[in-house]
Amino acid sequence: MIQPHLSVVVPVFNERDNVTPLINEITAALRGLVAFEIVYVDDCSRDDTLDVLKKLKADVPELRVIRHVSQSGQSTAVRTGVKAARGAWIATLDGDGQNDPADIPKLLAKRDESAADVKLFAGWRVDRKDTGSKRWASKWANAIRSRMLRDATPDTGCGIKLFDRDAFLDLPYFDHMHRYLPALMQRAGWKTVSVPVNHRHRASGVSKYNNLNRALVGLRDLRGVAWLIVRSKRTAVEEL
After folding, report:
1. Is 143 in a helix, a strand, or coil?
2. How far apart are CA 19 and CA 235, in angstroms?
3. Contact 48, 23 (CB under 8 A)
4. Which CDD domains match (predicted)?
5. What is the tally of structural domains in the chain?
6. What is the CATH number of the domain that holds 216?
7. Is residue 171 part of a domain?
C-alpha cells in the first residue's frame, strides 16, 4: 500500500445521505494529484451512516472507517481521525457536505508556496450559505474571538482546513478545540494563513448545533484559550 501524503479526515454524526456524494467529490478532487486516504470517523450515529460507509469501502480503496463506541463530539472525532491518519498533512471537512472538496487542491497549492513555519491553512467562507441567524451569530462570535485572542483569522468555524499532523497533535486537547485551531497553532509558535473557499447549502440532514448552545460553550472556551495563551512558554532549543 502506498504511504499517503495527505489524510482527509471527516467526522460524521447522522449524515447517511451526505456520505456517498461527499466521498465521490473527495476522490474526484484528489485522485491523480496526491497520494491520499480518507478517514471517516462515525461519532456513534443513530441512523445507518456506518452501514453506508462499510458498503463504500468495497468501491473506494482510499476509504478507512473508524467508529466511536460512544458519542464524543466533533473535536474528539477530528482528533481520533488525526491520530489514526497515516499522512503527514491533514485536510478536514465537515460531514454535512457544505465544504467543497474541490478546495483541497487550492489549500495544498497555498501550502506549497508558503514558508515552512506555516502549519495551518484555514478555510474562509467569504460567501456563507447558512441561515441569516447563523451568519449573524458567527459574525459576532468571530468578532469577540478575534478581539480576545488576536488570532488574525476571519473565520475559525469553517470545517475545511489543512494542517501539519505533528503540529496538531502537539496542541493541548479539549472539547471544541477545533474552533480555536489558529490561536492554538500560533500559541505553539507556528504561523497560520486564511484561504477563501467555497461554501454550499446543506443538501440533506439537519445541523447538529444551535446558536444558544454554541454561544454558551463558546464564552467558556474563549476564557480557557485566552488563559492558555497567557500562560504559554516557548523557548528555542539547540543540541550540543
Report:
1. helix
2. 44
3. no
4. DPM1_like_bac (cd04187)
5. 1
6. 3.90.550.10
7. yes
- Res 132: pLDDT: 62
Alpha-carbon span 177 to 225, nearest angstrom? 9
Query: What DSSP assignment string belongs to 158-183?
Result: -S-EEEEHHHHHTSPP-TTGGGGHHH
User: Considering the domain boundaries, does residue 27 fall inside one?
Assistant: yes
Buried b (16+ CB within 10 A) or exposed e, 38-51: bbbbbbebeeebbe
Across the chain, which distance is largest between two alpha carbons, in Å? 58
Residue 81: the pLDDT is 98
Could you read off the pLDDT of 97-113 as tens digits, one per residue?
999 999 999 999 999 99
| DSSP-assigned letter for residue 131 | -
Find the domain containing 207 and state its range. 6-230
Q: How far is CA 233 from CA 63, 117, 184, 189, 230, in A?
A: 39, 18, 13, 10, 9
What pTM did the predictor assign? 0.88
Task: State how far Cα 104 lies from the chain centre.
Answer: 12
SS3 14: coil
- The answer, yes or no, to whether residue 217 has pLDDT greater than 60, is no
For 46-149, where are the alpha helices, taking DSSP H only? Answer: 49-56, 74-84, 104-112, 132-149
Residue 238 in any domain: the answer is: no
Cell 467529490 identifies what position? 25
Residue 95 lies in a domain: yes
